UniProtKB/TrEMBL annotation:
Residues 152-499 form the PhoD-like phosphatase metallophosphatase domain. Residues 47-125 form the Phospholipase D N-terminal domain. This is Alkaline phosphatase. Pfam families: PhoD, PhoD_N. Gene3D superfamilies: PhoD-like phosphatase, Purple acid phosphatase-like, N-terminal. Coiled coil: none annotated. InterPro entries: Metallo-depent_PP-like (IPR029052), PhoD-like_MPP (IPR018946), PhoD-like_sf (IPR038607), PhoD_N (IPR032093), Phospholipid_Metab_Enz (IPR052900), TAT_signal (IPR006311).
């Protein structure tokens, strides 16, 4: 293999992201204060390396250190790093919890690249950490047609089921890695900030599930330090760390990054929380999310990522602009989950897309009823099979506008409900007829209690073609019913194949959709 061209690698430099200012503004954590002690010896990278939001010519690379230091990244086509070029990244500072990101630019498209990360001491020039190595595959450019494979799931460390070494840890990440995907889509609930862990849980058959527990995971997260600790905890798992080092991520947030079923403006009545203002909690949670994941921090959380002529991924933000949870039967088209700007962006970008397949990452499903206690709804649907109402109005607009514009190849991918399913939507079965038939595939949880199945709302005519759900609520990961999905697009025929898989990678159900 030839070495990376120096001008190509260094073109446009890098983007640094060592954290978001806001300790005083967001209040309460004390995480921004300088440590009173100075670690001895070489700096240490504490939680591995990750990459994310990869394009045809760029990628984000992430790490965290045990002290302030300068992030250094090398990248090469060669695994031995011969001829690698080094980029000087941001200073990893206490204000960003010693995390940092580098945006690699000018990368060759559709290639497997290797990166090596170190941190250099600020107090002693030349004193650097042991390196950590990762790899990633860049997306094909808009002219290059090739096979594309990715995996998706959601719901990580929920309902009290933490990392249990006696039960193999979070082995589903090993199984996902064995499919050798181009990228991983995490469809929300990347952490469970409202799900404290206890040291042991007795399973129905008498076995003992023993959780690894940290101080931040022993109570609901409220402070910035506690929200950061949710992400740090997940990276204690060896399978997740290894997966994150070799598979680029696309991350969405849903509710449990903050707390269950939250919406902007909500005020809690929950004795577990000393801070009852959800907007304050959400701001702290979002800072931790931005610091601890390889996600872009500029601009809105919704975004479009392209993988050559075959695939565009539309990543939705169904939380930041969410209206209050009520009966969800209102007639006001200005309300909804997405908000006006995101809704208009989605319609506009779907119309502009020339990709064969438009995958819409919707962390809340469309036709699955997700209640929020008696009389209120968390999701899009509310169980009334009639004409669109409430949040359904928003999606009726998206489906109608794209149908009238002749948009084809739309596929929805979701998680949230803690089982796996394949739902086909057809106007012939629906209360509304102005849309093109589409599929919505559900997968999860990755490592959480398993539930379901939920009822379907008939407004958009869903049919449950396949469902795999547990026999009882909150079935532990020890019993299986953990799931991920795999999508493969054939580079020649552009047919899209979906496998719904269990935690060991076995295919439970599959279908192939011909190119539209």
């Amino acid at each position: 293999m030839t070495e990376l061209d120096r001008r190509t690698l260094l073109r446009a430099g890098l983007v640094a992201g060592a954290g978001v200012a806001g300790g005083a503004l967001l209040g309460g954590s004390g995480a921004g204060a300088a440590p009173a002690w100075r670690p001895a010896g070489r700096p240490v990278l504490t939680h591995g390396v990750q990459s994310g939001d990869v394009t045809a010519d760029s990628a984000l690379v992430w790490t965290r250190a045990d002290r302030p230091g300068r992030m250094l990244v090398e990248v090469s086509r060669r695994p031995d790093f011969r001829g690698a070029r080094q980029l000087r990244g941001p200073v990893l500072a206490p204000t960003g919890d010693f995390t940092g990101k580098v945006r690699l630019r000018g990368l060759p498209d559709s290639e497997r690249l290797h990166y090596r990360v170190r941190v250099e001491s600020l107090e002693r020039h030349g004193l650097v950490s042991e390196p950590l190595i990762g790899s990633l595959t860049t997306a094909p450019d808009r002219h290059r047609r090739r096979d594309v494979r990715f995996v998706w799931t959601g719901d990580v460390v929920g309902q009290g089921w933490g990392i249990a070494p006696d039960f193999g840890g979070m082995s589903i990440f090993r199984a996902m890695g064995e499919t050798r995907p181009d990228f991983f889509l995490c469809s929300g609930d990347t952490v469970y900030a409202d799900g404290p862990l206890v040291e042991s849980v007795t399973l129905p058959d008498g076995r003992i599930w023993r959780n690894m527990v940290t101080p931040e995971k022993s109570k609901v997260a409220e402070t910035l330090t506690e929200y950061r600790g949710q992400f740090a905890y997940n990276l204690l798992d060896e399978h997740l760390r290894a997966f994150a080092a070799t598979v680029p991520q696309i991350n969405q947030w849903d509710d449990h990054e903050v707390l269950n079923n939250w919406y902007p403006g909500e005020v809690l009545d929950d004795p577990r929380y000393t801070e009852q203002r959800v907007d304050v909690l959400a701001a702290r949670a979002r800072q931790a999310f931005n610091e601890w994941l390889p996600v872009p921090v500029d601009g809105p959380m919704y975004r479009r990522l392209s993988y050559g002529p075959s695939l565009d991924v539309f990543v939705l933000d169904m939380r930041t602009h969410k209206d209050p949870n009520d009966g969800n039967t209102y007639a006001d088209p200005k309300r909804g989950l997405l908000g006006r700007e995101q809704r208009e962006w989605l319609i506009r970008e779907l119309k502009r897309s020339r990709a064969t397949w438009k995958v819409i990452a919707n962390d809340l499903p469309i036709g699955v009823v997700v209640p929020d206690g008696p009389g209120a709804q968390e999701g899009v649907a509310q169980g009334d099979p009639g004409a669109p109402a409430g949040r359904e109005l928003e999606f009726a607009e998206v489906l109608r506008a794209t149908h009238r514009a002749g948009v084809t190849g739309m596929v929805f991918l979701t998680a949230d409900v803690h089982y796996t399913a394949a739902h086909h939507y057809d106007p012939a079965r629906a209360a509304v007829g102005d849309f093109t038939p589409f599929w919505e595939f559900v997968s999860g949880p990755a490592h959480a209690g398993a539930f379901g199945p939920n009822a379907l709302d008939g407004t958009f005519g869903p049919q449950a073609v396949f469902v795999h759900a547990p026999p009882m609520a909150n079935t532990s990961p020890a019993e299986g019913f953990q799931h991920f999905g795999e999508v493969t697009i054939d580079g020649e025929s552009e047919a899209l194949t979906v496998h719904l898989r269990d935690r060991d990678g076995a295919s439970l159900w599959t279908t192939t959709l011909p190119a539209p």
